[in-house]
Batch of 4 targets.
Target 1
Amino acid sequence: MSMAYDSQPQTTVTATAAPQPQPQGPAALAASLNARLRDASPQGILKAALELFPGRVALVSSFGAESAVLLHMLSEIDRAAPVLFLDTGHLFGQTLDYRKSLVEKLGLTDVRDLRPAYQDLAVNDPKADLWKTNTDLCCDIRKVRPLDRVLLPDFDAWITGRKRFHGGSRLNLPVVEAGAEGKIKFNPLANWSKAQLDAYMAEHDLPPHPLVEFGYPSVGCWPCTKPVESGAASDIRAGRWAGSDKTECGIHTPRAATAAESEVGGDI
Ligand code: SF4
């Protein structure tokens, strides 16, 4: 779809300025947008994303420990904006409950549940225990492929909740970047600290994910998420794939060769 890469925003540093037509690829466009938005507020970045890519940008949310902040900001700007939720089939029941209650509280009207395809599960994970032997392939069929099946044809840009304070590969996270899948990615909370998130949650009386009080500073799938000792809480993602080198699920990294087509759809 042409809008994303045929347009460029004005150079003036305002989050709401209208784009000026100028052909450029995703990397150049992302660099231009990042230069313009890197010091903008999260709300200003969200507004810019929605205005630059009307109907072609989605917020991807895990409905995890910190998700309420960005979802609340979005709801105050446009409750009908698309939200993509990766329901891997291995999520905690508390996450599914939280997704439902938070959507109702915030009044979001276009939350789409993305699930693995029957064919991928039947071929690669018929016993639903692939996570024990191959977490990369498990994430690929349960997260990356479901996301790409929707993101690649239907959107030109997406919005993530990643922050620099998460550390690891996120330490140098820009506010706007070109994603490995070729789309523009907005990271409105890249600059924010844990203290700012906590303050925002309190100010807006947002409900925490139910597992936070049980020592889960980051919440993913139940087989791959452990509670974190309070002394190690400075590493927010310490409980994710604990004991392995894996730190990311794959939706933010270059696609593996195995992430090929699985055109036969269907939800679990
Ligand atoms: Fe599978 Fe674990 Fe990845 Fe979830 S986080 S998709 S269970 S490997």
Note: The two ends are 29 Å apart (CA to CA).
Target 2
Amino acid sequence: MKDLLTRFAAYYRPHRGLFVLDFSSAVAAGLLELAFPVAVTVFIDRLLPTNQLGLIVLASLGLLLIYILNAGLQVIVTYWGHMLGLRIETEMRRKAFDHLQKLSFGFFDNMKTGHLVARLTKDLEEIGEVAHHGPEDLFIALMTLIGALLLMLWVHVPLALITAMLVPVTAILTTVYGQRMTETWHALYGRVAEFNARIEENVGGIRVVQAFANEDHERALFAQNNRSYLATKLEAYKVMAASMSLSYLSMRFVQVVVMLAGAWFVMRGELTAGGFVGFLLLLNVFFSPLEKINSIIETYPKGLAGFQRYCHFLDTRPDIGDHDTAQTVARLEGAIDYRNVSFGYQAERPVLTGLNLSIKAGETVAFVGSSGAGKTTICSLLPRFYEVTEGAILIDGIDIRDMTLKSLRSNIGIVAQDVFLFAGTIRNNIAYGRLDATEAEIFEAARRARLDSLIASLPAGLDTVIGERGVKLSGGQKQRLAVARIFLKNPPILILDEATSALDTETERAIQQSLAELAEGRTTLIVAHRLATVAHADRILVVEDGHIIEQGTHSELIAGAGGRYRQLHAGQSPVK
Ligand code: ADP
Ligand code: MG
């Protein structure tokens, strides 16, 4: 807890000036609130009896001046104070997003998108609120309580003591209900999260929903979420209503008792009329921090819980990164060596054990084998999407762990089965291959990927918007875009992981040409389902259960009687 607060305080350091301005203004504003009851007392008891109009006008003007000053302070607290909170919030968000970029595939495999989004938006918003109101609210509440109590004692000691005895009832009532409010808000937060997740998933999968005509099912699920949201929020309002009216009643009860007692003291000549009125006004000032405690009890735990999640997130160390002496490699030749490589996504379930594989620079090797055999896994280790648990992978004789991630990955291009395209234009998506590419280079890449006729046929050309994840393109067009991206990137090593498996044979054949051209002069790893597409590879590797069980050229493997490749080939040939 102390640790957490120290970490939180550290975020104020760069904004010391703003903090001092905000804090002192808030304190001054709090103190000025106490001025009015005192002024009224002085006004009634001292000024009115003098019958001097000039003096009374002067005093009123003085009071007005105090209010103007206070109004100015409110502006500072509201604007600059929130600026302070907002700066801290944006700084935290920047840090969180930075961190997000560094985390490895393994982290995202186990993460829910909705939770991550909530962490970077809602959590941080709540932290920002606390960052602004946090320190000053608590301080001002305490200061006002003590200040008001001291002034009450100054006005009339017995009356102040009576008040001090009654007030704890109000305070306890307020706190107890505040706590219950916090619990209901917590529950509500959970409901809202469920709700968001449901909507997010529904929108993401709406095509599946409609294809299965399962709208009624989705409606029913949503209605359930909606109902529990309604019930929880109604419960929250019930608690709120009870809490508000009870604390109101208890405060007014204290006020009536004070009024009665005060009147009694006035009648006995122990209290002046001005003191009586001033005291009642002080009582109101005294109550205001009590009301504030409610909101403090609500926002503090929310903000702190959010900050805790934020810290936890920042503390997840990226498990794959650059070590201190990692070198930036220039363009590699592309000779690849897997040496005794073992790997598993979970420690208890190895996928690869002691894999050895050498690929010459410029060679094209194909991986075939049944689904789940480990082909994609072998490829994913090369750009270090996952880290080998044993052994090493070398490119041009250098361990890939001794290269910076950035320079290693700039040497590798990947076209996979499901292409991710960004919601933007064709131009943006091609240029993602090399952000500083010129218009001419983008066109050239598009031409080599055989996208030029499509672009020419579109009224907006390269600036055509392709929709979220490229929904406005056909499967073949998406793959071509992915290919253009790699042409632009121009890496010496290429991975084609079932790049055309999702396409029909005719489209596949058309794209094969572009892929063959893309593979020219590069070390290429091809994973393919349809054997016809890899028959031309320099070497074909048959993978089973994470092991390479056969290798050779197409004709060698076909000749090998009874081999797995022959079996696979026989299984596919008649269909073709
Ligand atoms: P292939 O590409 O040959 O079809 P993969 O390399 O994708 O096979 O998968 C090999 C094994 O690793 C499978 O058993 C699969 O379930 C598992 N696997 C693949 N990706 C992951 C992942 N991200 N997390 C956990 N297990 C995975
Ligand atoms: Mg695969």
Note: The radius of gyration is 36 Å.
Target 3
Amino acid sequence: QKAIAVMTSGGDAPGMNSNVRAIVRTAIWKGCRAYVVMEGYEGLVKGGPEYIKEFGWEDVRGWNSDGGTNIGTARCMEFKERWGRLLGAQHLIEAGVDALIVCGGDGSLTGADLFRGEWPSLIKELFENKRISEDQYTKYKHLNICGTVGSIDNDMSTTDATIGAYSSLDRICKAIDYIEATAYSHSRAFVVEVMGRNCGWLALMAGIATSADYILIPEKPSSSKDWRDQMCDIVSKHRSKGKRTTVVIVAEGAIAADLTPITPDDVHKVLVDKLQLDTRTTILGHVQRGGTAVAFDRILATLQGVEAVNAVLDSTKDTPSPLIAINENKITRKPLIESVKLTKSVAAAIQAKDFKKAMDLRDTEFVE
Ligand code: ATP
């Protein structure tokens, strides 16, 4: 009987609870034992029944409508060290777990794949140091790993959507709708900063959905003109046609054509100095992560949870770790490590301001 554990790791994202719920229930449905690891990799490093808990069917009841992650998440520096992963391996074996599904971002999934790759040498060391028995050494020869992507940023290559991104987008749109009402009343301009790190997806989609006047994202700095002139031309045109509101959305990683970062303060200053607009700035911050997941994320997380358990049960020691994705509305399996590598290459190209390379890499598809 296989024992499958699930953990959430990295930044929390709405829909993670649906993913955990689906994994726990599918595992039980398929005749496996289901476990949760509390507090991400920290729970693996600390170990014991307080952190690695067997879960039953009822333990995840009602989780579809809970925001955040009920099993906790953390950033764990110890797991980046070999000794931390050695403890993690020992604790999983002590709990009797032989498969791990990690729901997190690229960092968490890199850690998961590294853990799987190191597993034979970790358990050898544990056995040689008498930290596990010969029976355990023989029984836990392989660790199956599978990744599901929980991230509000929608920044993972090879999948069309990450768990949490559409919920965050919905929250941003609602917040901008509220802002529109007050902006209209006072005929004001608002600069709204949204999350996304190296990825402008949240800013771009929110801009389309709320018909923002101007959007600044990391991937496409205004090239034809200085962004200040271009933004002022567009905003002036809108105002000249009687528009009483101005909304400019700034992604947290936005940069200018001269490759310098653009902050909400920079945008605010331009709107005041050049257009004399009564301007306010709103940094949406953590409200973008909070609250319940939208239906799409609940469904995505549930379908991907089912597929994650299926993938674990299909895995052999020679199968590369899978990442559960969605492509053209179908739940798919992608090679985890290649997906993570590609995601990191895109982020590195953006940081190196090589936008063409970033775009080319984003369009890369795997032939499986
Ligand atoms: P988000 O996209 O929300 O930031 P993430 O999964 O990328 O999520 P990270 O902080 O990068 O978030 O990683 C979460 C945890 O995963 C880390 O605290 C660490 O425990 C583990 N981890 C990340 N990178 C590695 C690595 N290279 N080796 C081992 N463990 C890692």
Note: The longest helix spans residues 106-128.
Target 4
Amino acid sequence: TSEAACAPSLADTGRDIAPAADSVANLREAILRRLTYSVGKNQASASEYDWYLAVVYATRDRIVEGWMASTNAAYVHGPKRVYYLSLEFLIGRLLGDALNNLGLTETMRAATRELGVDLERLRTLEPDAALGNGGLGRLAACFMESMATLSIAAHGYGIRYDHGLFRQVLKDGWQQEYPEDWLALGNPWEFKRPEVCYRIGFGGAVEALTSPDGATRYAWKPAEYVEAIAYDTPVVGWRGAHVNTLRLWSARACDPLQLDVFNAGDYVGAVADKMRAEAISKVLYPSDETPAGQELRLRQEYFFASASLQDALRRHLKQYQEVRSLAEHVAIQLNDTHPAISVAELMRLLVDVHGIAWEEAWKITQGTISYTNHTLLPEALESWPVPLLERMLPRQMQIIYLINALHLDSVRKSGHTDARLIAAVSMIDEHAGRRVRMGHLAFIGSHKVNGVSALHSKLLKQTVFRDLGTLYPDRIVNKTNGITFRRWLFEANPGLTRLLADTAGEGIYDDPMALRKIAPYASDAAFVGEFAAVKRQNKVALAKIILDRCHVKVDPDVLFDVQIKRVHEYKRQLLNILETVALYDAIRAQPYLDWVPRVKIFAGKAAASYHHAKLIIKLANDVANVINNDPTVRGMLKVAYLPNYNVSLAESIIPASDLSEQISTAGMEASGTGNMKLALNGALTIGTLDGANVEIKQHVGDENIFIFGMTAEQVAQRRGRGIDMRETIARSPALREVLDAIGSGVFSPDDPGRYAGLVDILTHHDHFLVCEDFDAYYACQREVAAKWLDRAAWWKASILNTAGMGWFSSDRTIAEYADEIWKTQAQKKE
Ligand code: RUG
């Protein structure tokens, strides 16, 4: 397909970054053996997909021994183990990653060439493993790779969804969702472990049992059981030195069917229980920062938390023969509130199953668990109705009540009796029907709670966890997110990687801070020329993808202005669209001016139920239609909305970007990680002082980033004055004109009223302050254009972005977690 033809080439460095001992002949023979004995084909009859399978198996074989060695060494040397519990892992493709980390890319390329197959084409046959919605899931995938790279004995635990994030199709500009089927042809990376199987209970009742010594024990008798079956994927670190496991759980009914019902002729009824059980791992919830609010979601959360904890305890018992020392040897990280039920479940397992006294079990739980918060948005902070928890997880609800009672007792004992404070720190929210605040449960059950950027962690202390933070002042810490440079630089941008290594030395492969060494070349004409040539080559490749998928022809020499992320009001794609329309108006009004030609590139999915976000996608496409077909703009401005944004598409867009749009309402984006990937690849950021933008500014230098708009404090103040924007709009003729045009149907002649509601919201209830920031943003975009015209200044800033981004390696982030939260070190050599 043309998709294959347009994909960036696999670590096309001309040499293996981390050369391995394997020879081309060895690999060629290994592929052929796998083709014959695992795929069951000969060379003459093998399809491209058969070759792909054979190549993956041959690659995987080179990981497995290291995997076993790492696993054994963890038992022998006993480093503290880390369990990373995440409902999402947004992995993408694995072949390029594995080859790159093993140092086998070029050897494999040569081996496949000798067999008459093209490695690039094979690579594009791999479906993206999209078991996540966005930044949170991608962060988990980067962390897995960094933990392996740093030789930390870690397991990732999550759910093996049959269907990951939906496939987005744009039909007449409207988002349509289709199920994605990444497992349709099997998954050659994973190992099914049918023997690793846990029974997960739901519903039923709790029985109090009094033992002969008079003590009361509680036994949960679930009404229903579902089995959790493990599937393991090895995660190989940089240079292949250490391999960890990503263990994903699949749900299976205890009985495949009800035979009596089947024999009575009710074939559908006979498998109803099986369907209900297996629905748990059917689909990833397509929500990002919006509450799913579904019972099935809670079943998913408990299912994977319980299976993972049972598995961790089993491993601990095997190694240490008792559970009391758990906190000494195990760190469990909760990735967001989704696994927060783990606090109650670990208590249940320790107290009810392993017979540990409550106080000791609580110490163990708190000592073991820590929690990462990823959002301040109130609607994304999970809470579950008490009656639902009571019905689905009755023993866990009892435990939550008891944890809460003891917690509130200790609050009162420490002298805090104020009713407002007690209500605020209680795990039970009494406001709108009784609900359990899962963030509070995670906070109280953890020894450390972290935010994901300096600003976010500061705001956590001031807002959602203000009162809890005051009671436990040492608990909240910051761990600014990071990205793995192996995927987001070495693999996604091999041309740039080669240039950086040639200039700054091979040290950049192991020490991201060594990127600083290219700073002195930021004005060196020869280096700038090569840097620009790499960018141009990447832009040519992206232009092909845009032509192919959007039918928009773009000139690779224009400014590529990129906003790629989930579509959400707080991320303010709308602000970008309004500016696009204002620029369109300005170009038409004064066509003779020296406009900087640019293409606005958008990509991103909206949650299926988020109608407003879907309307924003439609607006971007409507605006694109009008502008791209208007001869008066003469290519000065184009708009392209690339459908079905995923990890692989990001790998093509990011190396080709000139300008990175990070324009969220200040205080609302916890961190962002796309901002880091783009800046690392030399895009200049236009952004607000939000999330990790603040730290990116510190690292790349104030003069190499475009900052505009209100700060988080100013946002709070502005909202305090109300969010009616009529006066603001009245002061801005450009904004008025844009809103009039959109609201009156200039971009939707087929349905002139389509955007009347949207404009009405912006005018009267502009919670995300799009209007208030509009003028500053428009002005800042003109500064961008001015800088673009000064080519030397632009390239200097671009190079200094790449040079300054070393700190944002996820290796640094993971090292901080290991030191300050998990208290673990690299595992000794296998
Ligand atoms: O929105 C946040 C991003 O700012 C952040 O970079 C990412 C990783 O920390 O997590 C995102 N996020 C938050 N995704 N889902 C949530 C809901 O809590």
Note: The two ends are 43 Å apart (CA to CA).
